[in-house]
Amino acid sequence: MHKRYQNARFVTSAASVASLPPETGAEVAFAGRSNAGKSSALNRICHQKALARTSKTPGRTQQINFFDVGEGRHLVDLPGYGYARVEKSRQRQWGAFLQHYLLERGALRGLILLMDIRHPLTPLDEQLLNLCREAGVPVHVLLTKSDKLKRGQATTARREVKKRLEAEGLHAEVQLFSALNGEGLEAVQARLDDWLGFGPPAGADAAAETSGPEAG
Ligand SMILES: Nc1nc2c(ncn2[C@@H]2O[C@H](COP(=O)(O)OP(=O)(O)OP(=O)(O)O)[C@@H](O)[C@H]2O)c(=O)[nH]1
Hints:
Elements: E1 9-14, E2 27-32, H1 38-45, E3 64-68, E4 74-77, H2 88-104, E5 108-116, H3 123-135, E6 139-144, H4 151-167, E7 173-176, H5 185-196, H6 206-210
Parallel strand pairs: 2-4, 2-5, 5-6, 6-7
Antiparallel strand pairs: 1-3, 3-4
Helix pairs in contact: 2-3
The chain binds guanosine-5'-triphosphate (GTP).
Keywords: Cell cycle, Cell division, GTP-binding, Magnesium, Metal-binding, Nucleotide-binding, Septation
GO molecular function: GTP binding; metal ion binding
GO biological process, one term: division septum assembly
């Protein structure tokens, strides 16, 4: 089992450009619509119950949260977007902050975009993908809650998302993920290792290393 992320710990939050922490090393950001399953995914990836608070009320995560995963590397939890009840002015403010973060953050190695497998590629997801392309930030897509669909449906959903992205000239990798049953966990951890510049985990065998991010 991959244990590196078990020691992740919360370091700080930022609610504005001015309060962003100094760039100490590589970081990978997690983004997605409210309720896409981001907190659940982070908790699962880090084998912790409440690292990122899982909430049944969508839209409650309002700050960028930084988690230290060792050796100066960080996972960064971006606030969920698209929650209808957040006022327009706050949505705009958040958009500007996100744009600044994606364009200016030198330490940012890539973005994990989480989308509920049953509702992928909403207009806000598309906007974020375009922003990442503009900023030159690589994207890795998790189609979350894959346990909600039958095997064949999940595979088809993945293929269709991949096809739509390619049609738009976006070359993101797309994988299935379930925080519930752990599907795709090793693939996303391998992607994080790669982006963060970690070597293979101690005790990893060749099979684990070759299970590419598109597995699942
Ligand atoms: N079946 C299933 N449900 C999931 C999975 N991941 C998350 N959920 C459920 O989906 C809901 C939202 O999950 P969260 O992890 O809180 O979502 P979030 O994206 O962090 O939401 P915000 O805090 O609004 O940004 C919760 O009711 C979770 O229990 C999954 O893999 N499978």
